[in-house]
Recover the amino acids of this structure.
């Protein structure tokens, strides 16, 4: 079990729609916030004011979408310098990004694209992670993405790839439980095998979110409540990790702050060992159980 000395409790993503409600709170109903780094780089307006206020009241973590670790492009040192400057201002508990590539030939696709899971790819990403960590002067967290296709050349499972990457670089993991659910559904593997074989002591943060059913595929949309299947996987994960900093993501069709907090508090119930039946049932277009999901080709 993970004896996590960096346990922050339960948090939500900081979104501009909630600034008025959050700034009006005398006592914050969440333990911490996660920001999207790119939303605050070169942002010196009201958002920076909100961030300055919140960093004095609770922990903040930075979550990025532009490291482009899997690309064949050179690392973007201009972006990394701006990320480092933002970190000097925020003083985050940690910085995270994704196991993916986001662009090539200098073009940003603004999407988290899947990696070929091969030994060659592993060595390429490991070298880049090490250089990023050295530049930032800190260990980073890497998140497992949602994926919708797999490469025929794959030699490793995603959990094997991440486990080896942790060994090579001493990076830590942001395990997105919803992404495990989405990818396992789309590719037809057992999410419990994933949770069993990922290095539990390296998991420093967890993401929870709600996906959308699109035909025979699940899409990582973050636009609705967390489904029952993800709550069940989260419960299994906690049995393996012990307390782990948990964050609820909600990025489209965003409800009021109080409703987002209410959804986060379901995670508190599970953590406290309360009966799962106390949670409101969520059915995403009658999504089948993650434990018997079809293979999508």
């Amino acid at each position: 079990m993970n004896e996590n000395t960096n346990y922050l409790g339960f948090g939500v993503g900081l979104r501009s729609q909630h600034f008025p409600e959050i700034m009006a709170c005398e006592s914050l109903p969440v333990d911490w916030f996660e920001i999207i780094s790119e939303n605050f780089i070169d942002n010196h307006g009201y958002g920076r004011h909100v961030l300055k206020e919140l960093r004095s009241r609770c922990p903040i973590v930075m979550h990025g979408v532009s490291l482009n670790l899997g690309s064949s492009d050179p690392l973007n040192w201009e972006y990394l310098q701006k990320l480092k400057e933002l970190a000097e201002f925020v003083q985050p508990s940690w910085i995270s990004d994704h196991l993916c590539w986001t662009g090539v030939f200098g073009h940003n696709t603004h999407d988290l694209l899947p990696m070929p899971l091969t030994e060659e790819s592993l060595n390429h990403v490991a070298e880049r992670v090490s250089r990023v960590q050295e530049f930032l002067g800190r260990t980073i967290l890497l998140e497992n993405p949602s994926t919708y296709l797999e490469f025929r050349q794959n030699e490793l499972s995603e959990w094997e790839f991440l486990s080896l990457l942790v060994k090579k670089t001493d990076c830590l993991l942001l395990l997105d439980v919803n992404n495990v659910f989405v990818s396992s559904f789309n590719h037809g593997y057992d999410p419990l095998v994933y949770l069993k074989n990922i290095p539990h002591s390296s998991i420093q943060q967890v993401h929870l979110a709600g996906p959308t059913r699109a035909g025979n595929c699940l899409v990582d949309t973050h636009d609705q409540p967390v489904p029952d299947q993800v709550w069940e996987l989260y419960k299994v994960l906690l049995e393996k990790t012990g307390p782990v900093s948990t964050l609820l993501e909600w990025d489209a069709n965003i409800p009021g702050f109080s409703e987002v907090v209410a959804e986060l508090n379901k995670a508190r119930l599970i953590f406290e060992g309360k009966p799962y039946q106390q949670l409101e049932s969520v059915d995403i277009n009658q999504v089948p159980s993650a434990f018997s999901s079809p293979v999508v080709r």
